[in-house]
């Protein structure tokens, strides 16, 4: 398992203080999978039982409104974790879809994994608490940007948060995440280009 999951190993060792021995114990029963572009991991209305660690590829979570329009909530590239925390914790139907933007290899992380990691590593417990608080902080910032920031400010924040996503997804997906139209995004990019701004 260790050789097959270099990104997960590095993630847990560098960020959560997991030792080599602990990693071997934790990953013995982990399940991995590969999904093709467009494949769906979570359907709206289903209960989400796992978080998904992206070993290689790109996932996204999104909702679809009554008119059929998609609203992208999050992207997850290599070394990111994506899920519906509310559905997992409260055992309620999810409001989101999660699918693959690219062919993606991912690891299923369930609550048993989190509990086991917390039991064997005090460093992981601290990391997991910090990760949860950081997730809340990110959501608060995202709400504030959508309510109060200009399209340019949202786009600049997107580039900072997802520096490698800009070249990997179509522009309409970025516009959907930003809550603006593709035309507005095009105008923002042109204006930034005039000021010699290089987004990547």
UniProtKB/TrEMBL annotation:
Residue stretches making up the Cyclic nucleotide-binding domain: 17-112
Name of the featured protein: Crp/Fnr family transcriptional regulator
Matches recorded under Pfam families: cNMP_binding
Highest taxon of the lineage: Bacteria
SUPFAM superfamilies: cAMP-binding domain-like
Species per Swiss-Prot/TrEMBL record: Flavobacterium supellecticarium
PROSITE patterns: CNMP_BINDING_3
InterPro entries assigned: cNMP-bd_dom, cNMP-bd_dom_sf, RmlC-like_jellyroll
Gene3D superfamilies hit by this protein: Jelly Rolls
């Amino acid at each position: 398992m260790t050789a097959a999951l270099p990104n997960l190993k590095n993630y847990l060792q560098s960020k959560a203080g997991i030792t080599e021995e602990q990693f071997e114990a934790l990953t013995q029963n982990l399940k991995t999978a590969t999904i093709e572009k467009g494949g769906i991991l979570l359907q709206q209305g289903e209960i989400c039982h796992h978080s998904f660690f992206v070993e290689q590829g790109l996932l996204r979570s999104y909702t679809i409104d009554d008119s059929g329009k998609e609203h992208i909530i999050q992207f997850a590239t290599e070394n990111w974790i994506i899920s519906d925390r509310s559905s997992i914790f409260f055992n309620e139907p999810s409001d989101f879809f999660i699918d693959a933007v690219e062919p993606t290899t991912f690891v299923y992380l369930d609550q048993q994994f989190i509990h086991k990691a917390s039991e064997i590593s005090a460093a992981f417990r601290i990391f997991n608490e910090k990760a949860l608080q950081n997730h809340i902080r990110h959501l608060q910032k995202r709400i504030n940007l959508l309510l109060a920031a200009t399209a340019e400010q949202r786009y600049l924040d997107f580039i900072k948060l997802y520096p490698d996503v800009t070249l990997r997804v179509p522009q309409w997906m970025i516009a959907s995440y930003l809550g603006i139209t593709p035309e507005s995004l095009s105008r923002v990019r042109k204006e930034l280009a005039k000021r010699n701004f290089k987004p990547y």
